[in-house]
Recover the amino acids of this structure.
């Protein structure tokens, strides 16, 4: 089994994390790799914002403002590091939804890489994610939108291994209606030989 398949199969989200966090330097390596997602016209329509320490309190205040609460929200304090995921839309023939897909792809890829590196990650949003106060606190420009935050910290040593339902691939992978027969019918080939199908259909 390839390392990627194993990493994806075993990843999970960690709602509770410890106070340990990856360093800025560690993040740079992972962000550089995550940025290798498929990207139409290589627009790089995304950026990430690192929130540590008191940054999280400032976010707590912005959340309270957008919710009309007097007390700062304590939500951002649930992890030592939050990574704000920003879609930075470029002027381009590439539509906005494709650019948002790239930004989301980077966040998924970074979550996976962090998990694989031993860190606990939880992607969170809220009704305040795209509020004015929260955008201002992050210094977002007019062409930018938040996609939420990756809450990152250490994996607690004695955490319960939460069960995840297996994904029923057959319920999610199908053919077009009125299906035609493939020249070399890859659907009948043994699923355990990845790569063969590519060659047959090329
Ligand atoms: C864009 C996005 C936003 C999310 N926001 C929340 C959230 O605010 N609260 C929450 O409980 N889960 C949220 N989730 C789901 C969790 O990150 C997580 O995927 C889910 O709890 C399932 O756990 P698993 O990843 O271990 O299967 C969000 C996921 C995505 C992709």
């Amino acid at each position: 089994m390839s390392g990627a398949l194993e990493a994806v199969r075993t990843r999970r989200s960690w709602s509770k994390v410890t106070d340990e966090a990856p360093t800025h330097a560690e993040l740079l390596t992972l962000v550089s790799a995550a940025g290798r997602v498929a990207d139409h016209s290589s627009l790089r329509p995304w950026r990430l914002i690192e929130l540590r320490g008191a940054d999280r309190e400032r976010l707590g205040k912005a959340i309270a403002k957008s919710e009309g609460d007097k007390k700062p929200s304590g939500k951002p304090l649930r992890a030592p590091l939050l990574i704000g995921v920003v879609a930075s839309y470029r002027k381009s023939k590439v539509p906005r939804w494709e650019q948002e897909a790239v930004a989301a792809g980077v966040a998924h890829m970074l979550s996976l890489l962090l998990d694989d590196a031993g860190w606990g990650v939880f992607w969170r949003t809220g009704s305040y994610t795209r509020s004015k106060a929260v955008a201002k606190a992050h210094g977002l420009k007019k062409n930018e939108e938040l996609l939420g935050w990756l809450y990152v910290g250490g994996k607690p040593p004695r955490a319960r291994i939460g069960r995840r339902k297996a994904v029923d691939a057959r319920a999610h992978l199908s053919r077009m209606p009125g299906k035609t027969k493939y020249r070399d019918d890859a659907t009948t080939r043994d699923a355990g030989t990845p790569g063969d199908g590519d060659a047959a259909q090329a």
